[in-house]
């Protein structure tokens, strides 16, 4: 338990894009103290430059922040008195967290140790360029919503089960990741009808079929089978950590269709 639950869970939630994070949680690349070079800015600071819906449409950093606002509004309504907005940090290059030092290679992740969702927004370009997602705003917003899904799990005490069962097609890790995808779908269901407390208006216009297709494309692009197939030409279900393309799409759709987090109980479900 050397790294504590935070370190272990970074392995889980940070491996969103199938990247091996062992290097930053105790391996050779880990640095102690001082951290690595990079720039990080909290959501609150960054938000000062993002004051309009137009900014959210044109600037990817602002879109992440606006999406976080929407997520806070939706989950605050779904789980009144239970949901606490996680912290948000945008970074470039590298960032020091309670879960260890991370670089952009990690992809977006949630760190339970400091209850913060971390995003290198340059990574969204990789979602299309490297992972082959169709792109589009909802593809990016799905990624933000997935990480906030981990925050919800953290607050609901649902992350503990993952310890000690972090790989395999039927593992607690995969079940947890698919639940985060389902929670992302729940958010999407409500995003266009839940008013932002600041403006009284919802963040999103009603979603189009293209939007939903973009989110599903993103979900599929980071399926374990897709990533493994692209990397090695074969798949090894025993090493799955996040679920297949088909599973990720299906669980996002489950949450999106129902809008009810209760439909996202993957713990005992047929995956
Ligand atoms: Zn995840």
Give an overview of the whole structure.
This protein is α+β, with helices and mostly antiparallel strands and 271 residues long. The chain has one domain. It is 45% helix and 9% strand. Bound molecules: zinc ion. The site of zinc ion has 6 residues, from helix 6 and helix 7.
Query: How would you characterize the largest beta sheet?
Result: 4 strands, mixed
The largest beta-sheet arranges its strands as 1-2-6-5
Total strand segments: 6
Question: What's the overall average pLDDT, rounded?
Answer: 82
Rg measurement, Å: 17 Å
Termini gap = 29 Å
Q: How does the overall form come out from the CA principal axes?
A: globular
Q: Tell me which ligands are bound.
A: zinc ion
Short account of what is shown:
This protein is an alpha+beta fold and 271 residues long. It has one domain.
What topology does this entry show?
Elements: H1 4-14, E1 39-42, H2 43-47, H3 53-58, H4 60-78, E2 87-92, E3 94-97, E4 100-103, E5 109-111, E6 116-119, H5 123-129, H6 137-155, H7 172-191, H8 209-221, H9 224-232, H10 245-258
Helix pairs in contact: 4-6, 6-7, 6-8, 7-10, 8-10
Bound molecules: zinc ion (ZN).
Any key phrases for this structure?
single chain, two-stranded antiparallel ribbon, globular, alpha+beta, 6 strands, disordered N terminus, 271 residues, binds zinc ion, 4-stranded mixed β-sheet
């Amino acid at each position: 338990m050397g790294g504590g639950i935070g370190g272990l869970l970074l392995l889980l939630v940070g491996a969103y894009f199938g990247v091996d994070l062992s290097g930053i949680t105790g391996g050779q690349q880990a640095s102690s103290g001082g951290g690595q070079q990079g720039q990080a800015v909290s959501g609150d600071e960054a938000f000062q430059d993002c004051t309009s819906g137009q900014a959210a449409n044109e600037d990817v950093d602002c879109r992440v922040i606006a999406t976080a606002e929407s997520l806070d509004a939706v989950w605050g309504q779904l789980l009144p008195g239970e949901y606490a907005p996680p912290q948000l940090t945008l970074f470039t290059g590298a960032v020091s967290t309670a879960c260890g030092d991370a670089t952009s290679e990690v992809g977006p992740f949630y760190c339970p140790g400091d209850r913060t969702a971390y995003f290198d927004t340059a990574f969204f370009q990789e979602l299309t360029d490297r992972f082959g997602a169709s792109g589009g705003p909802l593809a990016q917003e799905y990624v933000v919503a997935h990480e906030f899904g981990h925050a919800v799990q953290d607050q609901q005490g649902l992350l503990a089960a993952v310890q000690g069962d972090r790989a395999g097609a039927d593992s607690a890790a995969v079940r947890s990741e698919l639940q985060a995808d389902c929670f992302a779908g729940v958010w999407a269901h409500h995003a266009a009808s839940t008013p932002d407390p600041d403006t009284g208006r919802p963040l999103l216009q009603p979603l189009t079929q293209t939007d939903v297709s973009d989110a599903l494309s993103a979900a599929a692009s980071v399926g374990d089978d897709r990533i493994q197939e692209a990397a090695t030409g074969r798949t090894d279900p025993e090493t799955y950590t996040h679920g297949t393309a088909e599973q990720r799409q299906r669980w996002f759709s489950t949450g999106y269709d129902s809008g009810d987090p209760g439909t996202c109980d993957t713990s005992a479900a047929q995956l």
